Amino acid sequence: MERRVVITGMGIWSCLGKTLEEVRQSLYTGKSGIIFSQERKDAGFRSALCANVETPDLKPFIKRNLRQFMPEEAQYAYMATRAALENAQLSQEYIDAHEIGIIYGNDSVAEATMNALDKFREFGDTAACGSGAIFQSMNSTVTMNLACLFRLKGINLTASAACASSSQAIGLASLLIRNGLQDCIICGGAQEANMYSVASFDGIQAFSVREDEPTKACRPFDRDRDGLIPGGGAATVIVESYEHAVKRGAPILAEIVGWGFSGNGDHISTPNVAGPARSLELCLKNSGVDLKDIGYINAHATSTKAGDGREALAIAQVFGDYKVPVTSTKSQTGHEMWMAGASELIYSMLMMKNGFIAGNINFENPDEETACLNVIPETKETQFNMFLSNSFGFGGTNSTLIVKNL
Amino acid sequence: MTREEIIEQVNSVLAEEFEVEDSNFAPDANVKETLALDSLSLVDLVAIIQYTYKIKVPVSDLPKIKTFNDLYDYIENHL
């Protein structure tokens, strides 16, 4: 039995906004969420650029004894999930009476782990870590916290696949629903935004050093790109079977028509063309759609020389003569890493639902590799009913989703 | 540090950490019940004493600390 898989709710906590409307507005107007952080510069960062992500106040919603289990990314995820559940008209009473699952992307809890171990080393006593430390410092901290807070009784799983984590999470969830193993799954991705989480990433000189122009520094596909900028926050989508959504009278926003994935089997950080191309091809094959029906591609492109170029070649190889419109919303948000697959699905959904493609800000000139793409530099009002979203990660993990408007 | 200073600081630190509005704890009130501590958050009590006073509290000593007075005594005796 193959069932249709639909999206019925979205929620987000990002540098572009904390509500869907704020984010829609930011996308449309080409707002950049990137800032220069003096704190990072003083601490010794090569690049002190980062996304400006607000810390939520959970005190009104969660008691102290439960909040202490939640590191920064779980707090973002809680806010995004609260909003997504509300958007999907999924009440706690309904959740209590049904088997709802969670699959969320997360691939680090650096600051929480560091804080706990610093205390252990300072006092020479494990109790000094505090009671929340063990729960805060596990990679599955988001799913363990949210599953308890929202009393979820279905699948409870964290997907760790570097910067493809949350795209893989949504793909896995859609597979379980398609096959009838789950009816409804809370999906998404979370990314800690503190400087400790990306200090070692800065250390490998992967970040843009255009510090004098923070909002112009992230320029995916542009000839003068010089590296990515780390972002953060969380994004949640409610994914369920079409029948389940209809039965409970949920707002049906879109359909996940396909998921594709692949491994590069190659270098740990330098991507290739063949791996991403196979992810795209598998996704198209599984979707059974004509590639000309895809009206927009939300690229993975992070603003690195190698990554953007290889992705451009992979897209061009798969799409051939069809010059599908492409942008990378990372031009506005920086790289939201573990969160990116889910957040970029939401960004693309907001564009599809509101009839525009957000311009790939800072795209001025292509280079030899990216010239093969139809990159949309400024916001364009246009209707499209299907998009493809790419997410690729270290180790050569690739994930592609195709979503259709309903 | 005088006992009065210890009482004032302990009450203030505990009220903030465990989010209790009124920090005027009765000296003979039960610490676990007043602060609504479970087995996990009891560890935080140990950690807070450790950060604030640099006193290591072995788990075996915890049963001795029932009331706030017991807690003040424990800190005063180990400073």
Describe the protein.
The complex is a heterodimer of chains A (406) and B (79). By secondary structure, chain A is an alpha/beta fold. Chain A has two domains: 5-254, Peroxisomal Thiolase, Chain A, domain 1; 262-405, Thiolase/Chalcone synthase (Peroxisomal Thiolase, Chain A, domain 1). Helices cover 36% and strands 20% of the residues of chain A. Chain A has 16 helices and 15 strands. Chain A has helices at residues 20-29, 38-43, 64-67, 72-87, 92-97, 110-123, 133-136, 141-149, 165-178, 199-203, 214-217, 242-247, 274-287, 305-319, 330-333, 340-354, and strands at residues 5-13, 34-36, 49-51, 100-105, 156-159, 184-191, 233-241, 254-263, 296-298, 325-327, 356-357, 374-375, 380-381, 386-393, 397-405. In chain A, strands 5-4-6-7-1-8-15-14-9-10-12 form an eleven-stranded mixed sheet, with helices on both faces. In chain A, strands 2-3 form a two-stranded antiparallel ribbon. Chain A has a two-stranded antiparallel sheet with strand order 11-13. In chain A, helix 14 links the parallel strand 9 and strand 10. Chain A is globular and about 60 Å long. The two termini of chain A are 22 Å apart. The model of chain A has no long low-confidence stretch (mean pLDDT 97). By secondary structure, chain B is an all-alpha fold. Chain B has one domain (3-78): ACP-like (Non-ribosomal Peptide Synthetase Peptidyl Carrier Protein, Chain A). Chain B is built from four helices and no strands. Chain B has helices at residues 3-17, 31-35, 41-53, 68-78. The longest helix of chain B has 15 residues, at 3-17. The A-B interface holds A 59, 63-65, 68, 119, 123, 125, 127-132 and B 17-19, 36, 38, 40-44, 46-47, 50-51, 56-57, 59.
